[in-house]
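step 4 of 6: structure.
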Amino acid sequence: MTLILAALVVWAIGWGLNIWISHQKPGRWQSIVSAIIFGITLVIMWELIVRGSGISPVILPPPSMIINAFATSTDILAADFIQTFMKGVLTGYAMGCAAAFLTALAIDRSDFLKRGLLPIGNFVAALPIIGMAPILVMWFGFDWHSKAAVVVIMIFFPILINTVQGLDAADKMQKDLMRTYAASYWQSLFKLRLPAAAPFIFNGLKIASTLALIGAIVAEFFGSPIVGMGFRISTGAGRLELDLVWAEIVVAAVAGSAFYGIVALIERKATFWHPSQRK
Amino acid sequence: MDDIVIKAENLCLTFETNDGPVHALKDVDLTIDKGEFVSFIGPSGCGKTTFLRVLADLETPTGGTVCVNGMTPREARRKRAYGFVFQAAGLYPWRTISGNIKLPLEIMGIPRAEQKQLVEEVLDLVHLSGFENKFPWQLSGGMQQRASIARALAFHADILLMDEPFGALDEIVRDHLNEQLLELWAKTNKTIGFVTHSIPEAVYLSTKIVVMSPRPGRVTEVIESTLPKERPLDIRESPEFLDLAHRVREGLRAGHEDDA
Amino acid sequence: MNIVKTGLLSGALALGGFAAHAADDVTLQLKWVTQAQFAGYYVALENGYYDDEGLNVEIKAGGPDVAPSQVIAGGGADVVVDWMPSALSAREKGLALVNIAQPFKSSGMMLTCRRDAGIETTADFAGETLGVWFYGNEFPFLSWMAHLGLSTDGGDDGVTVLKQGFNVDPILQGQAACVSTMTYNEYWQIIDAGLTPEELIVFKYQDQGVATLEDGLYVLEENLSDPEFVDRMTRFVRASMAGWKWAEENPDAAAAIVIEYDETGAQTIEHQTRMMGEIAKLTAGSNGTLDEADYQRTVDSLLAGGDDPVITAAPEGAFTHIITDAALN
Amino acid sequence: MDVSQLLFGVIVSTVLLISSLIIAAFAVLWLSGTGYLGVKVLAAAVLGVLIFSGVNAFLVKSWTWWKESKIRPLPDKKLFSFVAILYVVTVIFALWYAFAIVLNKNWAYDKATRGGYELSFSELVADTWSQKKPRLPTPDQVAGEIWKSTGTAAAKKWERTEGDPFLERISEVLGDKRNLIRHAWLTLSATMLGFVFGTGLGILLAVGIVHNRAMDNSVMPWVITSQTIPILALAPMIIVVLNAVGLSGLIPKAVISAYLSFFPVVVGMVKGLRSPDSMQLDQMRTWFASKAQIFWKLRLPASVPYLFTSLKIGVAASLVGAIVGELTISQDGGLGARMLQGNYYGATLIIWAALIVAAALAAVLVSSVGLAERVTKKRMGFVQ
């Protein structure tokens, strides 16, 4: 009981601190510090509530156990990370992006294809593609190839649609200007339309970056070698190694956030001129 | 004197920016009497809009005092002492014209029946009767701006503050609206503060023209108009008008010279 | 509409039933989806054996991501069906599960291999890829491999382990030389897919001397100090075993009952009837009482796990005869 | 539309159909050798795209010729779009049949080798298009399976309940566990419940974030992080935890579905609630409007277009969530449970049938939100 009260006190302190911070002079540090305080508050409350209410660690382990598992099984976590992220996700991401981008360029050249493929692409993008995971595991085998395949089909349509939309983003006046210069298709593509499309393309890439890791992990639930983040998560729960499972979830969350962050960072550098990137 | 509606003394406003302080207003003294039509004119950055915003309590001055109807701007705002017309019509696309005009009335908690009557009244005033149920985008730009003036008038504030309300409109529509604004002013006898960067517009409309200059924003000259209250459009070709316009231009130039 | 109506009806019935008999609630968590593997419990429910004992039993089907031990730890069930290796492993992790009855005498687990992959004996496993289930089912396999002295990290002198999905695709498509199967289930999927028994070679864990005890009933140790709970479990086990014995004798009818309870509607009567026939062979040797020799063999097999044994020390108090003694004698 | 336009449409479609069949046949012949499957699929895709572009270029050329010849009036844009979609759909189906041959041929050959007979090409095609457990079932097989598990199943149940009162028979048919309609309904109800939870939570969070700087600073980054956690990993734990507090059935599925759908709503609503510009906010200030008045009269109505955009993404995410939940809580039925069971028994037809029904469900859900969007926007005067 006292532990739960302590949790409430921690919450009050953390929140009070954040309110105080929000009244300070605004700056970049503010949101970062606030977010960290909020996260730490949650973690401490988790620890206190789990211990205070006697929740069994095989249901929800306290953070201290997770940190401990993290520290003692770095080799396992690293092997899983390489298998799932480096092999499955990155390969699939690269292939999916390239395929979607090239398809978008092909479609862009013809009004006919655009009219035919875009409605279908929009439709497919809304489908629960994750249901294809068991089928792709069946087709491409148990190793990372099938995970990469799942990643490819999951990210293909979001990127395709965004890129095609982006290629239409240059306004009419700018296109007319290119016409007055008698620019060729490729010149106008590289000098005008691709830069104008960049914000859209990056939007697609960002969506894809979160989808990719989830897709790969889900695919591992349907069959995998005995290494990988999805493998560890699904089998760990069965062995009641919940601390390891949560450590793996933390790795997934950090990797996913970092992946997203890197794409966002590249976007900021590449499309600094876009209104959304300006302060 | 009871007739003083707006009084500013030693008004200063400084914005802190990364490149150092910017003096938007410095030592501005100004008195506006009831029923006056005052134009503020000057190059961009001279503080004319800022001054209007201070009156409306949208900016807080860093020095000096300002009174609106004998109250602080904040109290005046709370008492809804003025209507404010922005540069763009700013009508809500999801409300009809009458819905847009009702908006401030709803916010002020005026009873429904009265709202309806007020809306009819002001729509008539700006010659928009019959357009109650149209959406803003179904109206021309000039009509939208008239609707936004109607919205500012709807709650019978004594003061009307207008920040370049016709700046985005073409010359012909503008002339027309100017004429109607004068007519409205004559009918309602409101005190009007009007920001513009057009010399003919300022001269044509005002009883008093406040010429301002930038860096720091200050009043360089206050010109009392000698034009009669009744002003047909062709008054703009009269020698009196041209003389006033010349004085305003000179005033602006003077302000510019000591800047350089 | 219909669902709402049925829900209300059954809710009213449950309430009414509770009021009339003041029946004791028991929640049973199964290890896997609704199928003939659990026929005894469904038969006891359908034929009213539980009602006769004054019990109001709710059977929760499991699935690939449901660990019965986790469910019981979370208070989601009073008693669970689990395999002994995973129960003992949970016990060592601090979740004190106790076996109260053992309806399955023999193990139905086996490794099924294609002859054309060049496998005739266990000695041929080295260098091959083998499909294994996880989620608690990998323990018997790991201890068998340790027994054979094969590492499971891949390489030429060890075996490459594949986390098998829930079907037999790897062997059909040649991705693995052998896959894990149950005598009553997956083996027949291979046969149904078109491979003949002659083309296959099976290694039963039972024959290899590494059999571990499968479907048993487990409860939390702390509950056993409560006489009321013990009484409730005694009645539950008695009724369940009656269900099992009826199912053994009436396999066709038992399979039909199972089909009725399958919420997903994916089971076929042909498959379930055949499964019931195979299940009957596994339950035949047991009246519900745990055979201590079987228990000892399971423990030994799990302890002999080489470098990374499933359990590190012989467990204490992992089973009890109190309930079966009271229920069956 | 005059006759000449229709004629043009028919000619184009025929040309497309023939060209697509050629692609299919060619792909099969070219790929009938052996080798690594992934490579072949990739090669087939490249080949398909090449031929596809070639035919396309030809069509565009003839289209231009048609346009410039001015012999007949230009077919209208709608027809053009329709033909285009028809073309793409036809090609997809052709490729589907082609891939069915490619993917299923190993098993056909395997059977032939074991049975000791030779397969001719036509026998191969016949076999690959009609296997009981194919790696890739053909569209007609999937359609057949869907019909079998809806229409035929209903008819069977109808016959079996002969003699019962009429209404009872209807409810028996609809509640039949073997009927895919019931499973679709289960998934739909979990999706809707989760969607309502998620949307509510998303809007509340967005309101908090817009009005409270502390929340904006501290919660928003974690909202983004929450979406990088693989939900399928959490699903079993969510279920166990909720089970422990006595919640089972629809609720855990709805919780997972809400977890996925609240994110787009938060992001869209924050954007929408912040969409009024400073002029509009100043205007509100001049009227001395309270925070609540600004919210109800300005921010909320201004956010409606953003809300609907998010809802369309959110409802699709909800469906994914419900299906993911059902993969874990498979004992309660639902489309996800069907997929899992299909996988468990290697019954690919069941998986595909469930997938296609799920796709149809997604289409219905997204287009319903789209319809609601159009109606609302029209009534609110957003549409011009």
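step 5 of 6: annotate
 - Chains C and B do not touch (no CB pair under 8 Å).
 - Residues 1-21 of chain C have pLDDT under 50 and may be disordered.
step 6 of 6: archive
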